[in-house]
Write a structure and sequence with these properties.
The chain is of the alpha/beta class and about 280 residues long. About 35% of the residues lie in helices and about 15% in strands. The strands form two sheets. Strands 6-5-4-7-8-9 form a six-stranded parallel β-sheet, sandwiched between helices. A four-stranded mixed β-sheet has the order 1-2-3-10.
């Protein structure tokens, strides 16, 4: 019995930056259903070592997700105002908060910019009511998959503060950014720093809000650079998010004597770690 776990549920109690209702719901799950699952599971599969370290008594394997869809047409870079997106859910809200006021000031300075989030009524107060900020409501997965296939942006923000819960994150944001056709701006820490090459297929930035705002403003005036990073980001997602890798991973475990010769193509990373056994 394999248990696939994407979030570090044991980090919830000590991470007060997460929404209270979110923490309460998942904490209840961790103390009830998860306990019963762990009594039966023979192997834990998760995207980060931080999660796997929580289960020393189980067989453990590290495995990253695959992309769902990728942008193949970058015509949205031709002659349009720069559209910025924050594709994070409410669990990423505290990562955006330090940038919110600076983003509002940047929007005020540059009338050609716009910002979209998927935070709805939970968006930071400084980003509510601005004429060029669209706070779309959170979307359930089937609808969000359609959004990834159709919505297009030029620059995507994926800050990731150093918190206990964030240390268990997967590289899924790299796939969201590539699907939306944008250049990705990431925090310079795991998991992004393990796969993103700075200034090539994305930017890796420190936590200082001023550094983020300056980088955003600088690149909004360089459409060609954004386009190059967006294209390279798609190639990165293809490389480390190949769905065939996951297919072969599960077939090799669920089908007896599945031929090892059918393994997915090798994955080339700056520091290879996908997949690895703990």
């Amino acid at each position: 019995i394999y248990y696939l776990l994407e979030d570090d549920l044991y980090a919830l109690e000590g991470d007060t930056s997460l929404p209270e209702d979110y923490r309460t719901r998942l904490s209840r799950y961790a103390s009830e259903e998860l306990r019963l699952i762990l009594e039966r599971a023979t192997e834990i599969v998760a995207p980060s070592q931080a999660i796997l370290d929580r289960f020393p008594d189980h067989k453990r394997t590290r495995l990253q997700p695959a992309y769902t869809t990728l942008c193949c047409d970058f015509s949205h870079f031709e002659g349009e105002a720069v559209r910025i997106v924050f594709p994070g859910t409410r669990s990423h809200l505290s990562d955006l908060m330090p940038l919110a006021e600076g983003l509002r000031r940047l929007l005020d300075r540059q009338p050609s910019l716009s910002l979209t989030t998927f935070l709805g009524s939970h968006a930071p107060p400084s980003l509510v009511g601005h004429s060029r900020v669209l706070n779309r409501p959170a979307e359930k997965w089937p609808r969000y998959k359609r959004t990834l296939k159709t919505a297009r942006f030029h620059l995507a923000l994926a800050p990731n503060r150093d918190t206990a819960f964030n240390r268990g994150r997967s590289i899924n944001k790299i796939f969201d950014v590539a699907a939306l056709g944008a250049a990705g701006f990431y925090s310079d820490r795991l998991p992004s720093s393990h796969v993103v090459t700075h200034n090539i297929d994305g930017l890796l930035l420190r936590d200082e809000p001023d550094e983020w705002i300056a980088a955003i403003e600088r690149h909004t005036h360089d459409r060609a650079k954004l386009l190059n990073m967006a294209r390279a980001g798609t190639r990165l997602a293809q490389n480390c998010g190949d769905p065939n890798r996951l297919r072969c991973f599960w077939l090799s475990r669920l089908i007896p004597n599945y031929p090892s010769t059918q393994s997915a193509k090798s994955i080339h990373l700056k520091r290879p770690f996908l997949p690895s056994s703990a």
